[in-house]
Amino acid sequence: MLDNKTFFSEVVIESPGRINLIGEHIDYNGGFVLPAAIDKKITLSFRKNNSNTCEVLSSNFKSSFKVDLNNLVRSDVEWQNFVLGVLFHINVLKPASVKGFDCVIESNLPLGSGISSSAALECGIAEGVNELFDIGLTACEIIKLSRDAEHTFVGTKCGIMDQFAVVKGKKDHLILLNCETLDYELIKADFEPYVVVLLNSNVSHSLASSEYNVRRDECDTALVAIKKKHPNYHFLTEIPIKIVEEFKNVLPVKIYNRALYVTQENKRTLKAANCLKKKDLKGFGECLYKSHHGLQHLYEVSCKELDFLVAQTKALDFVVGSRMMGGGFGGCTINIVHKDKVGEFIETVSAAYEEKHAIKLSSIITTISDGVKKIEYGVSN
Ligand code: GLA
Question: Could you give all domains of the chain from N- to C-terminal order, each with its CATH number?
């Protein structure tokens, strides 16, 4: 097995997690999201091994695997599929470009907490292999093939937001991304005198992946039904709320609620971005609370632990906004908290959470950072 202590690397890549301020479950519906890369990251060290196999060690899982590059198939071990899927899709795009290599992965990104350790791993592998073998993949190719890897090898039909934020993240900026065109605008992440605090519920319900795909299907069902009357729309996010409302008694309640949430959340994301530009943090925070309300009641991807955490913040006048973040069914809430009250905030909410759910909360204070990058080249240890 590889040993991370004595590993001599030729290329070292840092690949960050991401937060998303607002625009949840919007990427695969072709609308606007507002993510950013963060300072918590995965570090991946690579070296060529002059063979036709690659060996990958995860220091966190204390496990490694070896794979023949001529036989890239799905594994029963989930984390391996993120790696295998990326190698498979690079091979589709640039046949025979990946040669044998060894890789050691170390991470300070908590898994299953909604800050996208999966996209960090996918994009980190893609970027590392791209550098090591000088393959010439563009940022856009890395983003798309990493997403495809998750579809085909992991089985989650995710959108493009996470991979985009991980690759294109820019220090101190949020990315207002149009997920249909991939056009984006960088917005200064100026929350002064507030800061972004993540509270990790430390629950990760097993529904997360299966229900994610169900939501995609439900959105497709809504779109197909609405298109029968309004054939010119291609994405739910394009459809005006008024038109969606015409279907209130036509669509099954659940399907109607999903479509309503999507159109509302897309509008809310644009509104929130404008609030931030005008430094209207109260308005921005209200959008976050409304987003959570929709995710809880209309889109139904929250859970009792996340709802509790968000509800707790409403009594605290030094918090302007809070909501669940990411795919849902566990993971983190994102909170906009006055910088002088962060300690009090964490203490108050942690105590209440532990009393109610008998689970310890963890907090993550994030800085908004650059996307995936090579940090070192040349032999070192
Ligand atoms: C996960 C997916 C993303 C996005 C979010 C929800 O993180 O990977 O593509 O859909 O959920 O906004």
Answer: 11-189+369-377 (3.30.230.10), 194-365 (3.30.70.890)
